[in-house]
């Protein structure tokens, strides 16, 4: 279909890729030899982060006393990769390991008319599309140079493309004391790490935000321009953009996947738990409805669906906080519109047993052997979870609007992970309240 060809050609032309790069992009995964080459290229690209020389180290002590440490790397398809992420709030004697690796695992973009379906990471040059940042868009921070893997535009290999900076986020807490009337408040600080990658007319901001209270947010912001080749006035699957009702920008989805490989307290042997709460009507003699929360161990690989009053956490097999509670991180879903068109987009979260060959939620470029399957849904096949990998799917159905031009305002989608019992108290507790752990009684 000519529409597809024009559209893809344009997207690639916009990236300035060489023919050689196109050939690699078009054939990776086609056979064992090319898949191995791709795997080697990915490994080579990510290698510097493994032992993390100074150029690849990010260390930020925030004004509130929390230090985040990590290594960054850059892969040809996934772009920015964060490794060895640790968190050290005030009062903790050493860094607490959180994530072994964290990165994007796909941006799947199907158009509503069925004409185009893109895998922006693995087939459309996301990694090579890294853009230079101006000092103004990394306020108060540092812009680092990223060396892109070979195979793209040789004139575009050193990119000032990684910003690390800090930002205030408003109140970390507020409390007026019953005892002395004093108000305790703190203004929270975050470390931000981000890149901007161009894929055709779209530009994706990959943002990682590390709060001083241990919460991590991962978000993708879509901006740039609507694709001028995906307008169709005829089929009723778009929204009129521009004067009158002549040009309809074709509606489409951005289904973004993240891959998180935890190593809480330095061990990959995490346990996954799912919690569900059930509300019941008041029984005789009760004032109000009751609610019962039940935790279940997720022993085997799972394709999970978000639901009201449902959540998951990854629990450390080894680490405990000072209250002797196992350390864990809770997965906090973000707003999502689940796209039901493909098996791999049908679930909100996947827990799979670690397999180095499984790197992308869909269109996995590696050759993992016959019958292995190329997307995350296929990897949920009953294995016992001893080293869980977490895949999170957050979708956005983009029905364009007049305001989307020009440039298109950033639309964010993503989720968070929040510490649960990583520290024994609020990690930012002021010294005057440090003894208020547990059941605090009046006048104590
Ligand atoms: Cu869009």
Brief overview:
This protein is mainly β and 444 residues long. It is 11% helix and 43% strand.
Keywords:
nine-stranded antiparallel β-sheet; ten-stranded antiparallel β-sheet; globular; 444 residues; Beta-galactosidase, Chain A, domain 5
What does this protein look like?
By secondary structure, the protein is mainly β. The chain has a single domain (2-433), classed as Copper amine oxidase, catalytic domain (Beta-galactosidase, Chain A, domain 5). The chain is 11% helix and 43% strand. The chain contains 4 helices and 21 strands. The strands form 3 sheets. Strands 6-7-8-9-10-21-18-17-14-15 form a 10-stranded antiparallel sheet. The chain is globular and about 70 Å long. The protein starts with a helix and ends in a 24-residue tail after the last strand. Residues 1-50 have low confidence and may be disordered. The site of copper (II) ion has 4 residues, from strand 13. Residues 1-35 form the signal peptide. InterPro entries: Cu_amine_oxidase (IPR000269), Cu_amine_oxidase_C (IPR015798), Cu_amine_oxidase_C_sf (IPR036460), TAT_signal (IPR006311).
């Amino acid at each position: 279909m000519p529409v597809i060809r024009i559209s893809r050609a344009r997207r690639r032309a916009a990236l300035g890729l060489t023919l050689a790069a196109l050939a690699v992009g078009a054939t990776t995964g086609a056979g064992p030899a090319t898949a191995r080459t791709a795997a080697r290229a990915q490994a080579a690209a990510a290698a510097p982060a493994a032992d993390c020389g100074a150029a690849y180290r990010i260390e930020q002590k925030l004004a509130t006393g929390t230090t985040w440490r990590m290594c960054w790397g850059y892969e040809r398809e996934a772009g920015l990769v964060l490794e060895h992420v640790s968190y050290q709030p005030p009062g903790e004697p050493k860094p607490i390991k959180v994530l072994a690796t964290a990165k994007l695992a796909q941006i799947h973009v199907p158009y509503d008319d069925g004409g185009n379906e893109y895998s922006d990471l693995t087939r459309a040059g996301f990694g090579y599309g890294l853009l230079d940042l101006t000092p103004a868009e990394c306020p108060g921070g540092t812009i680092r140079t990223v060396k892109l893997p070979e195979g793209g535009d040789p004139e575009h290999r050193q990119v000032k493309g990684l910003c690390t900076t800090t930002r205030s986020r408003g109140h970390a807490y507020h409390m007026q004391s019953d005892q002395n009337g004093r108000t305790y408040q703190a203004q929270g600080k975050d470390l931000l790490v981000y890149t901007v990658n161009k894929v055709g007319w779209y530009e994706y901001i990959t943002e990682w935000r590390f709060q001083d209270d241990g919460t991590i947010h991962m978000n993708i912001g879509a901006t740039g321009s609507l694709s001028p080749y995906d307008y169709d006035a005829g089929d009723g699957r778009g929204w009129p953009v521009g004067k009158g009702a002549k040009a309809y920008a074709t509606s489409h989805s951005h289904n973004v996947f993240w891959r998180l490989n935890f190593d809480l307290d330095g061990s990959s042997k995490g346990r996954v738990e799912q919690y569900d709460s059930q509300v019941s009507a008041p029984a005789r003699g009760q004032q109000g409805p009751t609610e019962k929360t039940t935790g279940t161990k997720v022993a085997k690989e799972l394709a999970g669906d978000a639901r009201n009053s449902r959540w998951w956490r990854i629990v450390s097999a080894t680490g405990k906080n000072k209250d002797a509670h196992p350390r864990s991180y809770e997965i906090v879903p973000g707003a999502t519109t689940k796209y039901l068109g493909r098996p791999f987009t049908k679930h909100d979260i996947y827990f799979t047993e670690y397999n180095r060959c499984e790197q992308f939620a869909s269109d996995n470029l590696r050759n993992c052997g016959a019958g292995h399957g190329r997307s995350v849904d296929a990897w949920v096949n009953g294995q016992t979870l001893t080293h869980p990998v977490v895949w999170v799917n957050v979708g956005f159905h983009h029905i364009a609007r007049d305001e989307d031009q020009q440039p298109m305002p950033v639309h964010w989608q993503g989720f968070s992970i929040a510490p649960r019992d990583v520290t024994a108290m609020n990690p930012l507790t002021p010294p005057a309240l440090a003894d208020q752990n547990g059941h605090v009684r009046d006048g104590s």
